[in-house]
Automatic annotation (TrEMBL):
Domain of life: Eukaryota
Annotated pathway: Protein modification; protein ubiquitination
GO-annotated biological processes: protein homooligomerization
Domain BTB: residue ranges: 14-115
Keywords (A to Z) from UniProt: Growth regulation, Ubl conjugation pathway
Protein name: BTB/POZ domain-containing protein KCTD21-like
InterPro entries (UniProt xref): BTB/POZ_dom (IPR000210), KCTD11/21_C (IPR045763), SKP1/BTB/POZ_sf (IPR011333), T1-type_BTB (IPR003131)
Pfam families (alphabetical): BTB_2 (PF02214), KCTD11_21_C (PF19329)
Organism of derivation: Acipenser oxyrinchus oxyrinchus
Amino acid sequence: MLNSNNPDKTEFQDPVSVNVGGQVYTTTLSTLTRCQDSMLGAMFGGQLPLLKDRKGNYFIDRDGTVFRHILNYLRSSSLDLPQDFSEMQLLKREADFYQIRPLLEALTQHESGFLQAAGRSAVLTADVSCQARTLHFNLKRGPENYELFSCTVQIYTANVFCTSCAAVERLCRSFAYQTPEGAVAPQAEEGQPNYLRLQWTPRPAEMPVELFHKHGYRRLIVAPVPSTESKVVQDARSFVEWMLRLALAEGFRVDSVFPDSSDILNCVSLRFVRY
């Protein structure tokens, strides 16, 4: 049975036991009235009636679990939530019910800082490989004159993964393929927005442009700048150089290099982190 009381402030005695939704907390009157213009300040300042449970604890019909964090804030004026805290919306609602405005402001700042940190922190990896392929083709030298030629093409493949989808999107906008129809931006893997696969082939000087495009080969350039030679991604070393520039511009730093950290431009695997 709950008993209704409307005591004066002088009737409260420390320590004060409060039953919040079935969970009993023991604290001091000064803690409960730390924010005098709050609901708790009015309750334990004698301005609002209070109920008592069968054991004589003051009873508040609110969530008892998150009240722990409200009480800790009143004790220390500091918001200390565990890293895996998952009831932010409930805590905000309870803080709003008790009208503890400094706590509401602290929760807003905490949530904003957490979202910014979550959106910024990321891991980025890039691996590049090369496959050589020999092509044989005929070149017409006259009406009935064809000559057999051979050349080697280098097919480069780069696999990029980033925990930040936004960073992958920006990388997609930073590169482009050269095609007969114009520049084409690469796309993240279908259904996997964290993955980007780039494949390009520099055109050998002895291979005609028409034949190069006929085989479906594409050059990779750095976009959106004009496709001048200085901006063409020629080989694995050139790709690593551009990845370093783009990653550092996004706030990443190099975390590991394979196989030789002292020869970063000739590596085949890079790992970046951002905090």
